[in-house]
Design brief:
6 helices, mainly alpha, single chain, rod-shaped, about 150 residues
Amino acid sequence: MCIRDREGGDGHYASLPSNRNDSIILLKWLTVTMEKLASVKDNDTRFELAQTVYYICFREVIRQIALHCTERGLLVWKLWNAYISLVRELSEWYNKEAKLLEAKHREKEQQSRERHKKNVQKVRAKAVSYTHLRAHETSLHLVCRLLLEKK
C-alpha cells in the first residue's frame, strides 16, 4: 500500500475505497517500520526517517478519513499542518533560547574570571613582610613562624 499509488496527478486523493483492512495493513507497516528504525544508531538519521514514516502514515490515515468524509479529512489535514507548524516554531524558539543562555553563561564566566583576577591582585597588594607581621604580634594573634620561615 503506497500513498502515491492512490494520489491523483493533481495531488488530490484518488477515490479508491478505504476499508478496515487498509487500517490493519497500515498499522502492521508502521509497527514493522518503527521496529527497524529502533535499530538505527545515528540519532539524526533515526529522527529524519521517523519523521518521514509518521508523515506517510498520517497522510494515509487522512486519506482514509477523507474518503468517508471529505470535510473531516480536510479538518484533520489542517490540524496536522497546524501542529507541525507549532512544533517547528517551538523548536526554533528553544534553539534561540539555548543560544541566548549559552551567551549569558559565557558572559558570566568571563565576569567571574575578571573578578577572580581582581581579587588575586587585591590579595597580592595586601601582602606584608614577616617583620611587619612580627611587629603586630600579640598573645592572642601569634604569627606562626614555622609557616612563615624560609627554607
